[in-house]
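Hey Z.,

So I finally got round to the pyridoxal-5'-phosphate thing we talked about over coffee. Here's the setup:
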Amino acid sequence: MKKKEELYVTKSSLPPLEEFLPYLEKLWETRLLTNMGEFHEQFKKELSDFLSVENTELFVNGHVALELLIESLGKKGEIITTPFSFASTTHAIVRNGCTPVFCDIEEDFYTIDVKKLRSLISKDTVAILPVHVYGHICDVEELDRISKEYGIPVLYDAAHAFGERYHGRGVGSFGYASMFSFHATKVFHSIEGGAVCIGEKNPELLHKLYALKNFGIMGQESVELVGCNGKMNEFSASMGLCNLRHIGEYIKEREKRYRHYESLLKDVPGLIFPKEQEGVEKNYAYLPVRILGEGRRNQIFSLLEKEGIHPRKYFYPLISDYDCYKGKFPGDGTPIAKKISEEILTLPIYPDLDFSDIERISVILQKECS
Ligand SMILES: *Cc1c(COP(=O)(O)O)cnc(C)c1O
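And the result:
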């Protein structure tokens, strides 16, 4: 029998090659390949429009964007975050010499549990760093109230939430600032790339972010601060510009596949399909299901692997359980995050995933979970 194609959770989207070539031709002509060139500036502007944010600063990747955003605060202290995220979120805190304080997540959408957050705020808290995990939007209203009440900025890790809106408002416009990732595996990408978006005018923050990503160089003879190299190059900006023209289709195709999974999996006992969040225009970047029953998630993971289907235990282990962090930082023990991390399984979803593959995966889950 012919071996079936291996299925991974994602496949990078690419625009038609003819659309990318004119950008390459222009770069061959001008030889201006990086350092805030024409495409960088155009991409920045188009992104601000698309995301409905006041300003955008571009970076070489999402992680550097987040690290430099935290650095721009100029403070050392505690930053409250959740351990149910990608390594980058907590690494950005620790690499800035700050201390992560792990707050638990809530059970429906896996975002920071605002009811448990207040008790973790101390005189040393310098920021709150929640994650719009899987594109589920955090409780932005309550986080806004907490931010105002305590005078602590909220920086969002919005790496999963590109293009989403909450009650019509661009998700990158909430809080002090938001980081987006344009990594090749994300719903929208510039091969590698990232951005910080700001909802309200903040020229001081913009100036600092620019300086930090450009060695602190603000003029031929002026170096203002000890920055690093976090610039996005023109090839990445070109890919971003091309993909931005297609993001609407990409999301539509993802939604169709998401709905197909939903029709096959929503009533399977022993499996929890994601709930709908009121007021959220989703990007369908991920399909995280939960498999109930002790050890069942791991068994089903192995079973799918044998079939050439490669889901991800995304996010397992919790960041607070990594070898480099275990037992080192304060928090409330995060029992819900622990439980979810043992049940979660993200399934393949991307714009050209075959419907027959969705059926193949769903049949296994229907049989094994019930
Ligand atoms: C992808 C991702 C990042 C890091 O972005 P890169 O562009 O890969 O550096 C940070 N946080 C989360 C939640 C992510 O998924």
